[in-house]
Write a structure and sequence with these properties.
Blueprint lengths: L1 H23 L12 E9 L45 H14 L5 E9 L18 E8 L2 H14 L7 H13 L8 E8 L15 H16 L2 E8 L1 H5 L2 H9 L4 E4 L5 H10 L13
Parallel strand pairs: 1-2, 1-4, 4-5, 5-6
Antiparallel strand pairs: 2-3
Helix pairs in contact: 2-3, 2-8, 4-5, 5-7
C-alpha cells in the first residue's frame, strides 16, 4: 500500500505545482465563473420639478430643505416660486448624490458607463414642446470605463440645474444609441438605469400633465431599446412618480427590466446598487454576497 501511495502523492504535488504556476502566470482558473460584463447608461431626470425639496439633507449641513408650497402655514414666508428652502437638498441634488456614491463604491463588475441627462424645452405660452425634441436628452459622458469622465458629467449637470419638462422617450433613445453604438462591447449586458421624479410629459403633449401620446412614445422607445438587448430599470422617486406608476412600470416591463418605487430619496443609492448586482432576467444568479 505504501509503495503505491508515494507515486500518487508525487503526482498530486506536481499537479498542484502546475496549477499554482498557471495562477502565478495570470492564467484564468476555468473553475471560476467569468466576471459579468456590463455596459450601463444612467439617465438622470433634470426637469423643472427636480428643483423641489427631496426631503433629505443631501448636502449634510444639518438642515433639511422643505417645499413651502406644500404647507399652507408657510404662505407668504418665502418668495414665490421657492420649492426648496435649501436648493442643495433638491431632488436633482439627491439624484446626483446617489449616482456619485454609486461611482465611489462601484460593484465588482467589468462595467462601462455612460451618463445622460433628460428634460425638454417648454414654450411658456402654450406649455408644449419648444422647438424640436432632438435636444430633450444629452449624452454627457460616452460609454467607457473612465469614471473621471462620468464624475465630470455629473458636475456639469449640477451646474446647469433643473429645467423644462420630462421626455422619457428621448432619454431611452439616447441610451439605446450609447449602449448599442460603436462603443458597445460584444457579450456585455446592456442596462439603462432611468431616474425620474415624474411622468412623461413631452414631446407631444402638455408639459404640465401626462398625455397618452407621451406614454406611447416612451413605450415605443423602450421596445426599440429592448430589440438591441437593453434592459431598462426605472427608479420612480417621490410621491408624484409613485402615485401614477403606469408609464414607469410599462417601460420596465416591455424591456425586461425592473420598476423601483423610491419613496425616500435616501434609498436611491442602495436601489441602484441592487439593480447592478442583479443579473439579467433568465441568467444564472451571480450576485455578490451581501
Amino acid at each position: 500500500m505504501r509503495t503505491r501511495s508515494i507515486p500518487l502523492l508525487a503526482s498530486m504535488a506536481i499537479g498542484l505545482a502546475v496549477t499554482g504556476g498557471a495562477a502565478a502566470a495570470g492564467e484564468s482558473d476555468p473553475s471560476e465563473p467569468a466576471a459579468r460584463r456590463v455596459d450601463v447608461a444612467i439617465a438622470i431626470d433634470v426637469s423643472q420639478s427636480t428643483r423641489a425639496a427631496s426631503g433629505i439633507d443631501v448636502d449634510g449641513d444639518g438642515v433639511v430643505g422643505i417645499n413651502p408650497t406644500l404647507d399652507a402655514r408657510l404662505d407668504g414666508q418665502y418668495p414665490a416660486g421657492v420649492v426648496s428652502t435649501d436648493p442643495e437638498d433638491a431632488v436633482l441634488a439627491a439624484e446626483l448624490a446617489a449616482v456619485r456614491a454609486l461611482l465611489a463604491a462601484w460593484p465588482d463588475l467589468d462595467a462601462h458607463l455612460a451618463i445622460i441627462s433628460f428634460s425638454g424645452a417648454i414654450d411658456p405660452t402654450t406649455g408644449r414642446q419648444l422647438g424640436t425634441p432632438d435636444g430633450n436628452a444629452t449624452l454627457r459622458a460616452a460609454l467607457s470605463a473612465d469614471r473621471a469622465a462620468a464624475q465630470a458629467a455629473l458636475d456639469a449637470i449640477a451646474r446647469q440645474g433643473p429645467h423644462g419638462g420630462t421626455d422619457f422617450s428621448a432619454a431611452i433613445r439616447t441610451a439605446r444609441h450609447a449602449l448599442c453604438g460603436s462603443r458597445a462591447r460584444a457579450g456585455a449586458e446592456r442596462i439603462l438605469l432611468l431616474l425620474t421624479d415624474g411622468l412623461p410629459s413631452l414631446p407631444h403633449g402638455y408639459a404640465t400633465r401626462t398625455d397618452h401620446s407621451d406614454v406611447s412614445a416612451a413605450l415605443t422607445a423602450a421596445r426599440e431599446a429592448s430589440a438591441c438587448g437593453v434592459r431598462i430599470d426605472v427608479f420612480a422617486i417621490g410621491l408624484l412618480a409613485i402615485v401614477d406608476p403606469f408609464a414607469a412600470q410599462e417601460v420596465a416591463r416591455v424591456s425586461g427590466g425592473r420598476y423601483h418605487p423610491i419613496d425616500q430619496p435616501v434609498d436611491l443609492r442602495a436601489a441602484l446598487e441592487d439593480a447592478l448586482d442583479a443579473p439579467a432576467p433568465g441568467s444564472s444568479d451571480t450576485r455578490r454576497p451581501r
